[in-house]
Amino acid sequence: MKFVESGELEAEDVPKITTIQNWISTYARTFKEQATENMVKDIRDESSL
C-alpha cells in the first residue's frame, strides 16, 4: 500500500486479494487442463508407433 499512500496509485486501481486469488486459480486450472491434454496426446502418439 506504499504506492497508494504516496499517491502513485489510487486504491481503486489495486486489485482485491480475492481477485488475484481468482486469477491464480484460473491460471492453475487452465495449466493443469492443458498439461493433461498434452499427456493424453503424448500417450496416444506413443501407442500408435
TrEMBL record:
This is Uncharacterized protein. It comes from Rhizophagus irregularis (strain DAOM 197198w).
